[in-house]
Write a structure and sequence with these properties.
- By secondary structure, this protein is mainly alpha-helical.
- It is built from 15 helices and no strands.
- Helix 6 packs antiparallel against helix 8 and helix 11 crosses helix 15.
- The longest helix is centred in the C-terminal third of the chain and has 32 residues.
- The chain is globular, with a radius of gyration of 18 Å.
Length: 309
């Protein structure tokens, strides 16, 4: 079982991509995963993240605050600004535009830590940045959405804040407490968490793609280009910021990956909850979930090769 779990978690890009392709061409297979389940599924992923956290993971915040501040500041400025630029350049419709901007305003994704490890980046910095950006998300994500997308649609900052607390912060806190009080039981299941997260993320993506398969068939090319450019710009600009601030290579790699890889599941969840009148707003988050796992694996191979030279 552990062997199967390891194979699935190591091939997250393939699993998520296959689920998206099957959902696109055979949407009825995933009709049982209703859009209302997205929040629950995301909560499961966040609960798993909480089970893996230790207080020592936040040690980097106090020992190297500059690095964490640089990384989080880059993430919450670069990605929203690139999102709104791409939306304007490609002239996306309001529903797709809101989805792209939501991705840009979200914190770092949990997969970024795995990619940072594979890329031989600064893993402690990556974990610290993910933790801090996630804790900041209930405030920064709604505020950024209001500032960047407020002219396109009404943004309920308070309700969005409550949503992020419910589907992200609360499950993480519960997972952290479960690990603290039931350490021995948690240790036995932690090995299966990456596999569980992979399957759940694939289910979220499949649900969103299946619900919008017909519309995706007609607009997927442009949206995919925007999603890919958004991610690639984040990776490149994140590395460039690290270089300009004279961080060493491993830190630049972590900042690059953390900036480029977003919690796109959260973006889809928020879109489904707060912008239900714009059904296509969930699509950019789903596509980003597929793409950033593929690009992340490629980036990790490139960064690892650079370090070895």
């Amino acid at each position: 079982m552990k062997r199967i779990a390891d194979i699935i978690s190591k091939n997250i890009a393939i699993v998520v991509l296959l689920s998206a392709i099957v959902a696109l061409f055979f949407p009825s297979l995933f009709a049982f995963i209703r859009p209302s389940y997205i929040n629950i599924l995301l909560g499961i992923v966040m609960f798993g993240m909480g089970l893996t956290l230790n207080l020592s993971d936040f040690k980097v915040v106090f020992s190297r605050p500059k690095d964490v501040i640089v990384g989080c500041a880059a993430q919450f400025t670069i990605m929203p600004l690139v999102a709104i630029l791409l939306v304007k350049v490609f002239g996306l419709s309001d529903d797709l535009a809101i989805g792209v901007v939501l991705v840009g305003c979200c914190p770092g994704g949990t997969a970024s830590n795995v990619i940072a490890y594979l890329a031989k980046g600064d893993l402690a910095l990556s974990v610290g940045m993910t933790g801090v950006s996630t804790l900041l998300a209930p405030v920064l994500t709604p505020v950024l959405m209001y500032l960047v997308a407020g002219s396109m649609i009404d943004v309920d900052v308070w309700n969005m804040f409550l949503s992020i607390v419910q589907v992200v912060i609360l499950p993480i806190a519960i997972g952290f407490l479960v690990k603290h009080y039931f350490a021995s039981a948690t240790e036995r299941i932690v090995v299966y968490l990456p596999m569980t997260s992979t399957i759940v993320i694939a289910a979220i993506v499949a649900s969103i793609v299946a619900a919008n398969s017909s519309k995706l068939m007609s607009s997927s090319a442009v949206v995919m280009v925007v999603v890919a450019l958004h991610n690639i710009c984040g990776l490149l600009l994140g590395y460039l910021i690290g270089k300009l601030l004279r961080l060493d290579h491993s830190k630049r790699v972590s900042v690059s990956i953390e900036v480029g890889m977003q919690n796109s599941g959260l973006a889809s969840s928020l879109a489904a909850t707060h912008f239900a009148m714009l059904p296509m707003a969930t699509i950019p988050g789903a596509l980003f979930s597929v793409w950033h796992n593929i690009s992340g694996a490629v980036a990790a191979a490139i960064y690892r090769k650079v370090k070895e030279q």
